[in-house]
Amino acid sequence: MLKAKKTIKWISLTLGGMALAILAIGVTANIVSPPSGYSSQTTSLVRGIKIVSEVHQDRMPIVTLTGATITDAPLQEVQSMAESGNREAQMILGALYWQGIGVSINGINFVPTDLSRSLHWYQKAAQQGAPEAHYYIGRAFEMGEGVSEDKQAARSWYEKGARLNHAPSISKIGYFINKGIGGLKANPVESATWFRRAAEMGDAIAQANYGVMLYHGIGVHQNLEQAVVWIRRSAEQGEAHGQFLLGNAYEHGEGVEKSMEQAISWYTEAENSGSAQAEKRLAELNDQTLASAN
């Protein structure tokens, strides 16, 4: 049994709208009660799991680690819970094995990357109706990660997630219809309907995509002002493409009053979020400024 004097160390996982953290500690008093809707069985995993609500739009499990010292006791307990059928524990193992957290921390192979094992646990969670699990399996088939690429299988898994009202899955169906992939016929009107549904649920990528369709009048009547409303919602959630699009709207004064100051500000936000388009546009604007100064 772990001793109470052990330092608390966190492994944070973001699972597309649900953040989970594992505590390497043996003190029951430090367990935070999960929000409503989670079983008392999850709460009973002392030294184990803390579940909090957090909106995040990353499309695969993102695992970050803070702290240099960890113990493998929590993993053993999560593994036991997962094998006993606990859905949340199965989701955690799926995320951990997908990215391989702590492979080289102090020489300890905490969880090696193992996509097959990750998908095994996601499938277990999916069998119990975990919406996020359907999405992650769908993305694996879409990208050919851990399995052979199969767009129709991906579509099937996304449709299952969509039936469970999972916004990223709904957004993906909109994307598949937009591109005419996965056995679906391209249909901009239907695509816009799916994007709007996910956008209204708060999905940042869907908000950006629906904004683009409004901006160009694809599948919907063109409405620049409404396009900017949806793009701004995406940008304010930290979505790189939404931030770039908002910068572009400000630069050209389309749907919003023209402002190069705001344009550069949003391009910078987008660049910091990883947008190559924003990085390129900022470089172009900088070159133009230097050229005009000479």
TrEMBL record:
PANTHER family linked: ERAD-ASSOCIATED E3 UBIQUITIN-PROTEIN LIGASE COMPONENT HRD3, SEL-1-LIKE PROTEIN
This protein's name: Sel1 repeat family protein
Pfam family, one: Sel1
Database matches in InterPro entries: Sel1-like (IPR006597), Sel1_AlgK (IPR050767), TPR-like_helical_dom_sf (IPR011990)
Gene3D superfamilies: Tetratricopeptide repeat domain
